[in-house]
Each structure stands twice: as C-alpha cells, then as structure tokens.
Design brief:
The complex is a heterodimer of chains A (about 625) and B (about 350). Chain A is α/β, with parallel strands linked by helices. Chain A is built from 20 helices and 25 strands. The longest helix of chain A has 20 residues. Chain A starts with 20 loop residues before the first strand and ends with a helix. Chain B contains 12 helices and 12 strands. In chain B, helix 1 crosses helix 6. The chains are: A alpha/beta (about 625), B alpha/beta (about 350). Chain A: One of its GO terms (molecular function) is magnesium ion binding.
C-alpha cells in the first residue's frame, strides 16, 4: 500500500481551497532538458527514484554531451533525461515524450521535434531573453510567435519563483538560482502525485556539509510542489497507478550498477577474490568507481596507467588465482587486443567488459551503439576465439555478468561482456534475485601432478585438458610441485612446453576453437516468443535492442500481426538450436545499432537470408519505427 | 608452512613469502628445458648467477614467479623451475603488478630488455617504478634488438649503423637509470653479466629492497653488438673505467683507488686524481639519501660509447611505502569499517519496494 503524500513540514497553508481534477493515466513519458550545468541528470534521477518507490514500472534514457560543461545556452550543451513510467510493464524509455521540461531556449529547440502534437511543455521563461533565443536561432520568441500552438505550453518563470521562495535564506543569488531544478522537480512531483520524502532526505544527505544549501533546495522543491497545487496554470494533475509486476522485492537500478554488482556476486559465488584492472573511459568508468567501494568483498581495484596495463594486471591476477576483470569501451578494447590474445593462449579466466559507445575512434563517447560485436568476435591476430555474452536490459547486466564469469571460470578463457551506453546509464526496476538462486561458480585449482610417465614418475602438464570441457587445469603459484611456465608462444599439447611443430599447432588452434564451440552445449537454447506459433517472420536481436524490439513486437501483435521474437544472450558460441530457429521462418529481421554485424555472422554461419535493419544515431531504436519495419516485412511475405 | 618471523636473510621484503623447509641448491631452480640462447650470449652468465643466487633467499620455489615480455632475455622464465609467464612485448611490469598486488605471498621477478622495457613497454616501466610495487625488475641492456636480428634500440648510441639505420641511427639514447630515477624509483642499480660476484651482490640488495627494484645488467650480445661493454670487462682497463659504488664509502676507483668522484664546477660531478684534490674532496656515496640528486648525477657519469667512468652497484635504495602493502591495508581497513561484505544486502541497497 502506498499513499500519495505531499510535502509535510513547512508547507504553507493555502488561503483558498483549490479543487483540482485528477486524471488517471496508464503511462507517461517525461523529458527533462536543460543546460549541462542545470542539474537535469540529478532531477531525472530523483524523479525516477520517486517513481520507482511509488511502484510504477519504468525505463530511463539519460542523454548528455561528452563535454563536462559545454558552452552555456547552446544546442550542443543540452543535457536531457527521459523517463517512461506506467501502470503496466514497459520495455523502453518511450519513443516520444508526452511532457517536456525545457529549462532554456536551447533545450526547447533541441527537443521540440521529438514531441507529438498536444504534448505538454513546461518552459522556464526567465531564460528566454532575446540574446539566449538568438544564440540558438530563434528570431522571435517561440513562446509568443504561435510556433508552439500545437502544444500545451506552461510558461513559468521558474528562476524568479525559486529565488523568491528562497528570499529568507542567507545564500547567494547564484545558489538560489541553481535550486531551480528542484523547483521544477517539485512541480512535476505534484503534477504526477509522486512521493516526496525520499527526495527531501536525499537533499539533506547530499548537502549534509552545507545545511543552508540543503534546506534551500528542500524549500525550492516544496515551493515547486505548492506552486503546482495553487497555480491556475495546472488545472489537472495525474495519477499513474503502480504496475502489477511479478511479486518480489524490487529496486531501481542502472546497467552499470547492476553489472558492478554482478561482478561482486561472481567473486562471492566463485569464492575467489575479484581483481579489476581498469583505465577510466566513458561510459564504463562508473563500474570502476562502484567496485572501488566494495573492498570488503575482497574486490581489489587497480587504476592502471593505460588500457593495456589495466588488462595486463587483471590477467596477472588471474594467473595468481583471482577472477581478473577489465572494464572499458570500444577504443580501450582495441588497445587490449594483444593481451586478450595472450589470455586465449594462456587459457586463463578473464572478463573483458566493453560498455560500447559510438565509434569509430573517439566517436560518440556518451552515446550508445552496438558496433563492437565484430571487434569482440574477431579483433585479434590469429585464430583467437573468445566467448561473448550480452545483457539485454539494465538490470539484466547483473545476470549477464554472472554468466560471463561462469563461462570464464569453467572454461579457463577470456570472455567478453558486451554492454552499451544505453544499458549503462538507463535504469529500470529490478526484481532482486535470492542469493540462493544464483549459480555456484566455485572451481577447483589443480593441486596434484596430472601425468604419470612410463617410469612411474609424476609430472604436472599445464595443458592436459578436461575431456568434457577441454579446459586446462588452473594451477596457481604457491602450489608445490606444479611449477610451470606458460606463455604466448605455441605450446605442445598436454605438456605445454614451447612447440613449433606444424601438426601440434594445427591441433592446438582447433582445440582452442573446439573448447569455445563446446560451450554451446552448456548454455540455454535460443528461446523464441512466437505467441500464435504460426508467424512467418522472426525478428532477432542482441543486447540492448531487446526493449525496443519487444515493444515493437507488442505493437504489431496488438494490431493483429503475427511475428516471432528471439534475442541472443550468447553471441559466441551461438546457442545450439540457432540454425533450427532461423530456418523455421520465411523472413528473419535483424535490427541492430550498427551496420549489420550480427546479420553478417548469422548469414555467414547459417546461410540464412537475414535482413538487416540498422541505425547508428547514438540513441536506442524507437519501437514504432521497428513496428513499421516489421509490418512491412509481414506484408511482403 | 615454515615461516620464520623474519624474511630469508632477514629481508623485510620477503616476510610474507613462505620459506623452504630444506636448504636449496642451484639445481632446484634449473628447469628441464634446453637453453636456447646463441652460444656466447651474456644471458647464460646472468642465468647462472640467478640460479646460483635464488637458493640464498630460502623461499619455497613454488612461491617464486618470473614474468617476462618479449625479446631474447624474455626466454629467461623457461629456464627456471619456478612458476613463470612469458608474456607479450613490453607488458611484463603490468602483468607482474597484477600478480604482485593480489598475492603478497609471492616473490615476483620481471625479466626484460632495453627494447622491451624502454621502447614498447616504457609506460609500464615508469609507472611500476613510481608505484613501488614489490617487484624486482632485471633489465638486460645490450643496446641492440637481438631477437629481431639487429636493429638499434633506445639505448643504442647515436649514429649506430644497423640494418634499419644504414646511415646511422638518429635517435638520442635513453639512460635507463636516469629514466628510473626520474620516474621516482626507490631502488636503482647496475651490474655486468660477466661479473658474477658483483651481479649477485646487486641481486641480493634488490631482493632485500621493499618495493620495486630496477637492476640494469649490461649484457653482451655477441652476435649483433659484440663488445659493447668490452672496456668494463677487459682486465687491462676495467679498473680505470669502472666506478664501483658502495654505500657509505668514498667513491674511488682505479687499480690503486687513485681516482675519485668530486663536485666539479657548478656542482656537476667530475672525476679527479685523489692525490691532486685530496681525500676530503672525494664524495661519499649515499644510496639511502632521499634526495635523488647524487644518484641521478652518478647515472650521468659514464660515456655510452667508450664506457669510461661507468658506475656500477646500487645507486639508490630508499624506503618508500610499498603499493601492494598499502592496497592490502585499505582492504583490511574496509573490512574492519564496513564488515565482511554481504551480497544480499549489497544488491538490496537502501531503496526497495515489495510487490505481493
């Protein structure tokens, strides 16, 4: 049970009772937009947290520039945060906002094209000076020239109201103005009946060392709420009932946080210390920051001098019996390639977490893309197969990290975990797993010689494999009698000493490949959602496109269309039944945020005429757009 | 495990490493692999010195790890019956850092060369040195690329004629020990492949040092750069060109100790006849001085081409906090302050709701 509560303490009494209408909605998409310095990410985070606490299903899409403080008031400097919340389960942050909060002309201009007619726009009129409008190319004020007639505009002097509300506080005008995002948050919290205590607590915690600033922000937040309740501008407020999600305990979580917890969990489940060697890179750095907080789980974090040293240290730790992990994004993977190849040759467990971003080169550091699949698959010299696991939603990053660790430890191999910028920063409610449900990842280190010679003497052969998994023994330094040397030079099968023998190399190359291919027997088959069982079109994806694809499939089905959906968690090896699934449909559509990398693999591996649908705009697909594509293909069959 | 309160030989750097139950000999550290360096290579002498020295540490050999990069010298781990990794070009210090910072019970040694450590792996070397991880780095300097068959290296003298520089190399060389001191190294030493006694004494000092120790070993490549250090080996002239550094001792050299290192004009080091300048003018070596000025100045003595006035021995050996110990201290502090981690409460966080 949850009551909708307004601010408690210090809420000014209203002089006149105002009766306002309350409307029920099933879902809302809000986008907060402002300058990079306006605190829009924080505002969005808080609204998300209130919404999660309230019990709606939700999905978020932060979108910010790579510059820390881009020039004020410019289009490239606009930072936004989109939140979709609903009384039912949802899959995406929403195609188009139904509400836009624009803190300045640049925020309005940068986002207006995404708004459907009839959307609500809340603008901060204080920022609509002639100069500020001219800076982004508004010759006349859009608030006055009729260009926003199709929308429901609430023109509010947010800055003035905030400064006025904080007149009694002994703070600078600048500090008072900076609290305008909390005024806006208060107003939106009123408008959508969000619970507010947690935000008040949050502000007091955040500014614990500056109590005056804390109280000023709380006051601005409450003033925003009260403004909503008293102003005539908002005649209606909205309720979105809690969603009926599967029973359980939930929290809201971003992909990077879920992934970090997955790594901590993997260490606990394997009863091994986790060693993260990493170099800061957007959008992966938050994983390093998070793991650095959890030393009490036996997690060591090492910020290396470069990407190469980051993975080198992780591999060194793996040699010593730790679960070595490195976290990075595409450019970092390029630098780590040689060490990944060494890990393939050494056959030691290692996790390479690639939080993909727009490429090539520096590309779009803060935007999402799925264009490292082929780099993960093939980006090394020689035949160097590496298993690949991809999470499909922010909270799924937890389970995917555990699965990647399972494969790495069991098969003694480096494993790629391919997240992306959208998963990393986006958030959603997560039904917490019971720790007893999590897999047992414990491994046995080698303790005894494993080879008996003809003369009865015993030896340790570092490349004598488990016949089932083809994994080699993991003998860590400190184990008496198992001293051995390994390296990147080709090794003789079994005994592991240097070998340039042609037949041996052929055998070793094929064996390493067979080991990775054999993982297909040990992963879940590809599951197909074919509701009616007679769809002729399959749409298949991987990674973060799960939400938009599933939402598109729902739309198509809602209109009577028949389409099947499958989503790959394992990209190398593919699940054993992949060929069978693909061949069961007349048409196979592969939407990807790249130029067709999975499609290339599916066509090459399975000789199916997979059709690519691609976008590389740094943003997730819109589900309506995918639904349109699916409908067209269905009609063509 | 037989752990004595002190490290082997009283070395505080080795206190955390398990000790051998019985006395060891050189053959305990020889692997069964056939050594494949070119006949006459200086690496053989270094290998023999190391195999002869390791028993002195009295460590369990399973707790000793040798990690190398790529190059002739990097084959070293194959010939030692300890744990070992022959890794990739230039990256051994990074890999060894991960191992050493996660396993304090191991004695971790890195073998590298002038190309491996100073060219492709320069970044890892300087950062290992400034962090002061408990690593011992042996840098075999032969002033040439041997494994790729004879190109000039970052320590080759300018104008060197090689296959890749038929008109002479244009690069100004690095002085590895100057680089190391510039990178905040806490232990810097130099020795010579053929002087087993001296090399062993330097290895002993490096092993005793807490933190990263860099030992440059002048090593002759008899195929591609033969005689690079001949003046330091030739009995007829070696005493007059080699300056043997000993902590706390006047820096004198020459067959009769007739030369000394003094402060010359503008404070720069100079070499003089002791008889002319007087014994009091001769500098006393202080490897433990926190200020690196003298140690650095000593690295600048010596001529790369003629090898005249080449100091060998321990230039610098100072106490500085060791990275892996600091890391472990933070781990322990976190466990004390936060308590042992509980996974269920971690993933739960502070803000949950329940749906029935």
């Amino acid at each position: 049970m949850r009551a909708v509560r307004g601010p408690t303490a210090a809420a000014p009494r209203r002089s006149f009772p105002v009766t306002k209408q309350v409307k029920q909605l099933d879902r809302v998409v809000i986008r907060f937009a402002g300058d990079s310095g306006d605190g829009m990410q924080l505002t969005g985070d808080r609204f998300t947290s209130e919404t999660a606490t309230f019990g709606n299903d939700l999905s978020t899409l932060p979108n910010f520039p790579a510059e820390i403080r881009a020039p004020a008031g410019t289009l490239p400097g606009v930072s936004s945060f989109q939140l979709h919340f609903a009384d039912h389960d949802i899959l995406t942050p929403g195609d188009a906002p139904t509400v836009l909060v624009a803190m300045n002309p640049a925020a309005l201009k940068a986002n207006i094209r995404d708004l459907p007619r009839g959307a609500e726009i809340i603008v901060n009129t204080d920022e609509f000076s002639k100069r500020a409008m001219a800076k982004v190319g508004y010759p006349t004020s859009p608030l006055e020239d009729g260009s926003l007639d199709a929308y429901n505009v609430h023109a509010i002097p947010l800055t003035t109201l905030t400064v006025g509300a904080l007149a009694e506080f002994e703070i600078s005008k600048k500090d008072a103005e900076r609290a305008k995002n909390m005024f806006a948050l208060g107003l939106l919290s009123w408008l959508y009946h969000r619970p507010t205590e947690a935000t008040v607590d949050f502000l007091r915690r955040k500014f614990a060392k500056l109590p005056v600033i804390a109280e000023a922000n709380v006051a601005a937040f409450k003033a925003g709420w009260n403004f909503g309740e008293t102003t005539d501008d908002f005649a209606v407020s909205y309720e979105v009932a809690p969603a009926k999600l599967p029973s359980g305990t939930y929290r809201n979580i971003t992909g990077n946080l879920a992934l970090s917890y997955g790594l901590v969990a993997a260490g606990q489940l394997a009863e091994l210390p986790v060693y993260l060697g990493s170099y800061p890179i957007t959008p992966a750095s938050d994983i390093l920051h998070e793991l650095a907080k959890h030393k009490n789980f036996g997690v060591r974090t090492f910020q290396a001098e470069d990407e190469i040293a980051g993975i080198g240290a992780a591999l060194g730790a793996s040699f010593g019996g730790a679960l070595g992990v490195t976290t990075t994004s595409g450019p970092g993977v390029a630098l780590k390639s040689e060490t990944i190849g060494l890990a393939v040759s050494l056959e030691l467990p290692l996790l390479i977490v690639d939080v993909q971003r727009g490429g090539p080169s520096t590309g779009l550091p803060t935007k999402t893309e799925q264009s490292d699949l082929l780099q993960a698959m093939f980006g090394r010299n020689g035949e160097a197969p590496v298993p690949i696991v991809a999470p499909q939603t922010p909270s799924d990053c937890f389970a995917a990290a555990v699965e990647a660790a399972r494969i790495a430890l069991k098969y003694r191999t480096p494993v790629f975990l391919l997240s992306d910028g959208y998963l990393a920063n986006g958030s959603e409610p997560w039904r917490l797993p019971e720790t007893s449900e999590l897999p047992d990842l414990r491994v046995a280190f080698a303790t005894e010689p494993n080879q008996e010679n003809a003369d009865g003497t015993k030896e340790f052969w570092p490349y004598k494999r488990d016949p089932e998994t083809l994994a080699r023994p993991w003998a860590v330094p400190g184990t008496p009698g198992l001293e051995h040397r390994i390296g990147g030079i080709e090794k003789a099968d079994g005994i592991g000493s240097i070998s340039y023998d042609p037949a041996n190399h052929d055998l070793m190359v094929r064996t390493r490949q067979a080991k990775v291919d054999g993982i297909a027997k040990d992963i879940d088959p590809l599951w197909v959602d074919d509701a009616t069982g007679d769809a002729k079109v399959l749409v298949i994806g991987w990674g973060s496109t799960y939400g938009p694809i599933a939402a598109a499939v729902r739309r198509v089905r809602a209109a009577g269309g028949k389409v099947a959906q499958a989503h790959l968690r394992h990209l190398n090896p593919f699940p054993a039944n992949t060929a069978e699934v693909l061949r069961s449909y007349d048409k196979v559509i592969v939407p990807e945020m790249n130029l067709g990398q999975l499609a290339l693999l599916l066509r090459g591996r399975f000789l199916v005429d997979a059709m690519s649908y691609n976008q590389v705009r740094g943003l997730p697909f819109k589900s309506e757009e995918l639904a349109h594509v699916i409908r067209e293909v269905i009609e063509s069959v | 495990m037989s752990e004595s309160a002190n490290g082997a030989g009283g070395f505080p750097s080795l206190t955390l490493i398990p000790k051998a139950d019985a006395k060891q000999s050189m053959k305990d550290f020889k692997s069964d692999q056939e050594v494949r360096w070119c006949p006459g290579c200086g690496d053989y002498a270094i290998l023999a010195a190391v195999q002869g020295f390791l028993p002195e540490l009295g460590l369990r050999k399973e707790n000793v790890v040798w990690i190398s990069g790529i190059g002739c010298s990097s084959r070293f781990p194959y010939y030692l019956n300890t744990y070992g990794m022959h890794s990739i070009h230039g990256r051994a210090p990074a890999i060894a850092t991960g191992l050493a910072t996660s396993r304090e019970d191991l004695s971790v040694w890195v073998v590298t060369g002038d190309g491996d450590a100073l060219s492709i792996g320069g970044n890892h070397l300087i950062h290992a040195l400034r962090r002061n991880v408990n690593l011992k780095i042996l840098l075999f300097n032969n002033r040439i690329y041997g494994l790729t068959k004879g190109q000039y290296s970052p320590t080759s003298e300018t104008g060197k004629i090689t296959k890749s520089t038929p008109m002479g190399s244009l690069d100004h060389p690095f002085n590895p020990l100057s680089v190391a001191i510039g990178a905040e190294a806490s232990f810097v030493a130099r020795s010579i492949d053929s002087d087993r006694k001296h090399l062993t004494s330097v290895l002993r000092a490096a092993a005793a040092h807490e933190g990263t120790a860099l030992v440059e070993i002048y090593q002759n490549c008899n195929i591609f750069n033969d005689g690079a250090f001949e003046q330091l080996k030739d009995p007829a002239q070696r005493d007059d060109v080699t300056i043997r550094l000993e902590h706390g001792q006047p820096i004198r050299f020459g067959a009769e100790g007739q030369y000394g290192v003094i402060r010359g004009a503008h404070g720069a080091l100079d070499v003089a006849e002791v008889a002319k300048v007087g014994e009091d003018a001769v500098l006393v070596h202080d490897a433990h001085a926190d200020n690196p000025e003298l140690a650095f100045a000593l690295t600048r003595l010596g001529d790369l081409t003629s090898n005249t006035h080449t100091p060998i021995g321990v230039f610098r050996d100072i106490a500085r906090p060791v990275y892996d110990r600091l890391m472990s201290a933070q781990m322990a502090e976190a466990a004390t302050k936060q308590g042992q981690g509980d996974l269920a409460s971690l993933i739960r966080g502070n803000d949950t709701w329940t749906i029935d």
